């Protein structure tokens, strides 16, 4: 047998153990180690002693939002509101009067002066339309020129327009961001395609070969009702460079005729697609953000005795949507961050599963951030998949500690204890909320330190091997793809990253780089 390629002179971590070479035929692994080396091949690739791992798989990211946001005014490095205003003014000076000035990535926890407000933005960019997205995506600040165009008399349920001294500050939280829709929605499909192209180039350079997009088609994170068309177009034109599973915003599911239940037209649901582009779970938002202090908590945020956050939709309608999607055969991924939201979502899953049991449902809780011990037990016994973001502890950890107080930190973004409880653990970034480079995340999952260096529930740290397994096998499992992805074994897709050294050594994690990335057996990125 002649294979397409043999990759050799490497250490290959297959997910189960270590071997030395890998042979590829028709995009799949056909042999490993000595068996691979002995095959004749159309090409032999010397990996120069590199360390091969299964391609990284980001189980929750926002690829279109990230890719398009590369054009925004970057605000994540700002440390005061004045720096934010300066950045806005600098960009505004380059644009025609009346243009949009769009910024993203600010975090009020990191800004002297807190959230930017409309008065500051009015001064920074007179005559312009300004909107700045919070790093969480759960809130937006606008200037007065934008505010004047919003229908403030009809603020959607599950959101609020923040006021100070009786007038709006410009801060729109959660569903109140939908007030901007008449001005900004939908994004042209061609722009979404360009965003996907830019994002996927960067992903390949970071060793990512598969992603799951956490919500298309509607809701707070959707770009356009035709978003799947953007993915198809990106795929057809070769600019979608990583395998993608798209979650569908719950708001676009609807009743279908006859007894077809609840879903999309044609009865389309989870699982349709192929190795490159697949329809994944229905994505539903229960609540908001922890650093933004809008998520639904059992007890108030630290220092804010009247604030326990809120739900994005009424609790009954959340349970009803979960029940209907479950009955119609969807996999469900529900965003729940606060401990009260997690309780309500667990109740809803438990009721749906009791009413119509389904083996291997793989329903998920996205973020699953503040997880009390009793709820951890319930999560595991229901067979649910928590989908926490390891890197949040670093970039958002100090803000999360401020919101929770020390006593609740041990419940926050738990990793080790969900594995110990028997759950399968995927790994993800929620990019662009934080830097989504997997090598950074592996270090954070192993070290559990905040940006200021403080330990953050260090008992939740993973071993390097557990972290790597989460970023490969765990994520594949979370989207029913473990038969094709997640480990390097004969029969599976030949998706892998070539690293400069072993990520299994904690001490080496800081110095690692990605040397190459292969999807379907073909090196599509080389450093
Ligand atoms: Zn997200």
From TrEMBL:
Keyword NAD carried by entry: no
Keywords: Hydrolase
GO molecular function, one term: hydrolase activity, acting on carbon-nitrogen (but not peptide) bonds
Species of origin: Amycolatopsis eburnea
The keyword Magnesium is assigned to this record: no
Domain Amidohydrolase, first and last residues per copy: 45-523
InterPro entries in the record: Amidohydro_3, Metal-dep_hydrolase_composite, Metal_Hydrolase, YtcJ-like
Domain of life, source organism: Bacteria
Name of the molecule in the record: Amidohydrolase
CDD domains: YtcJ_like
């Amino acid at each position: 047998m002649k294979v397409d390629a043999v990759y050799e002179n490497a250490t290959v971590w297959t997910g189960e153990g270590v071997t030395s070479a890998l042979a590829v035929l028709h995009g799949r692994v056909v042999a490993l180690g000595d068996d691979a080396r002995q095959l004749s091949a159309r090409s032999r690739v010397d990996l120069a002693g590199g360390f091969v791992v299964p391609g990284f798989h980001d189980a929750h990211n926002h690829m279109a939002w990230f890719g398009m946001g590369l054009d925004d005014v970057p605000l994540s490095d700002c440390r005061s509101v004045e720096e934010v205003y300066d950045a806005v003014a600098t960009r505004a000076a380059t644009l025609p009067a009346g243009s949009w000035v769009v910024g993203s990535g600010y975090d009020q926890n990191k800004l002297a002066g807190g959230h930017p407000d409309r008065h500051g933005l009015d001064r920074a960019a007179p005559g312009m339309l300004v909107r700045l997205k919070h790093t969480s995506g759960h809130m937006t600040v606008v200037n007065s020129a934008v505010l004047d165009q919003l229908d403030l008399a009809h603020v959607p349920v599950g959101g609020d327009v923040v006021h100070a001294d009786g007038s709006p500050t410009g801060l729109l939280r959660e569903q109140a961001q939908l007030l901007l829709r008449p001005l900004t929605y939908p994004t042209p499909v061609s722009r979404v395609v360009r965003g996907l192209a830019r994002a996927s180039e960067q992903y390949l350079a970071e060793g990512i070969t598969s992603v799951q997009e956490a919500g298309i088609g509607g809701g707070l994170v959707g770009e356009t009702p035709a978003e799947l068309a953007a993915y198809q177009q990106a795929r057809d034109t070769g600019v979608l460079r990583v395998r993608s599973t798209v979650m569908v915003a719950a708001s676009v599911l609807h009743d279908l005729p006859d007894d077809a239940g609840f879903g999309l037209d044609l009865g389309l649901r989870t699982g349709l697609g192929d190795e490159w582009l697949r329809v994944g779970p229905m994505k539903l938002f229960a609540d908001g953000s922890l650093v933004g202090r809008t998520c639904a908590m059992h007890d108030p945020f630290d220092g804010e005795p009247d604030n326990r956050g809120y739900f994005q939709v009424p609790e009954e309608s959340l349970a009803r949507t979960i029940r209907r999607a479950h009955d119609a055969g969807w996999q469900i991924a529900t965003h729940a961050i606060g401990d009260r939201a997690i309780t309500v979502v667990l109740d809803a899953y438990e009721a749906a599963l009791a009413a119509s049991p389904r083996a291997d449902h793989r329903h998920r809780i996205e973020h699953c951030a503040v997880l009390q011990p009793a709820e951890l037990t319930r999560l595991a016994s229901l067979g649910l998949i928590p989908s926490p973001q390891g890197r949040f502890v670093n970039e958002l950890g100090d803000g999360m500690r401020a919101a929770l107080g020390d006593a609740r930190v041990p419940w926050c973004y738990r990793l080790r204890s969900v594995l110990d409880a028997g759950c399968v653990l995927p790994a993800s970034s929620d990019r662009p909320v934080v830097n989504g480079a997997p090598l950074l995340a592996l270090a954070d999952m192993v070290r559990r330190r905040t940006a200021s260096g403080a330990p953050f529930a260090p008992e939740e740290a993973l071993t390097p091997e557990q972290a790597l397994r989460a970023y490969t096998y765990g994520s594949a499992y979370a989207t029913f793809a473990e038969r094709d992805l997640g480990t390097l074994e004969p029969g599976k897709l030949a998706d892998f990253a070539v690293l400069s050294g072993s990520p299994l050594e904690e001490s080496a994690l800081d110095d690692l780089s990605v040397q190459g990335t292969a999807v379907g057996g073909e090196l599509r990125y080389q450093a």
